Write the C-alpha cells for this entry.
Amino acid sequence: MKKAALISVLLAGGLMILSMADFPSWGDDMSPASLHLSSYFLEQAYEQTATPNIVTAVLGDYRGFDTMLETVVVFLAALSCFLIIRAPREVCIPDLYMYRHKATGIVVRKRSMCVVDDEDYCFERIDSDWTPQDVVISTVSRFVIPFIQLFGLYVLAHGHYSPGGGFQGGVIFSASYVLLAISTDLRTMVRKLSERTTHLLSAAGVLVFSGVGLFCLASGANFLDYGGLQGFMGETLASGHSNGILLVETGVGMTVTAALAIIFKLLSSRGTVMEGL
C-alpha cells in the first residue's frame, strides 16, 4: 500500500513538473498576465478601490470570492483538526495532578485536582512532565506579548497602505498566544483564549466576510461588490470600497487567529488541551 501511494505521488509530481514547460518564463513581460491583467490593476486599482496597496486591492476586491473561500478553507482546517484530534473529556482527566510551591519549588502530586484560581496562592499547577520555567523568559514574554498583538492589529488595519492584511495580522496575533503558551504553559493560554472563544471567533470571521457580501447584495449591488456600501453613512464610492476591504480583512484576521490557536492547542496537547508542548 505504501509503495502504491509513493508511486502515485511520484507520478503526480512528474506530471506537474512536465506541465511547467507551458508556463511563461519568470518575469516574462509578454505573458498574458503582464499584457492584460497587470497593467489594468496598476492603472485602475487605486481609482476603483481607494487602496494604494495593489496586492490588498486584488485580494480583497478583484479576487474577493477567492479570498472568502480561502478563509472558509482555514476555518474548515481548524474544524477538521478539532473533529479528528480532540480527545473525549473523560480521556483528558489525568491520573495525577502536579503542583509546585512557588517559594521553595517543591513539587507535590495529588490524585484529585485542587482549585488554584488565585494568582497569589502559594501553589501553582504544572504539567506532569514538568520542566523548570525560567522567570526571566516568562516575564519578558509577558512584557513583549502586548506589543506583538498591537503590531498584529497595525498590520491588519494598515494592510490598505502597506504590506499586510488579514492573513498576516492574524498570524502575528496568534503567534503572541503561542509565545504565551511556550513561555508559561498551555493552561495559561487556554485561560486567556478558551476553546469556546476560538471556535466562535473562527466562525465569526467567516460570517463577517460573507456578511459584507450579503449587505452589498441587499443594497442592490452584486455579492462582495463594495459599491453597495457607497450609500451607507453617506460614503463615496471609493470610501465604500476601502471600508469594505477593511471589513473583510478583519474577518480574515479573526478566522486565521482562531484557527491557528485551535490547531496549536490540539497538536501540542495531543488533543487533550490540558497540558503539553
User: Anything to note?
Assistant: The radius of gyration is 24 Å. Residues 48-93+132-268 form one domain. Residues 237-268 form the longest helix (32 residues). The first strand starts at residue 97 and ends at 101.
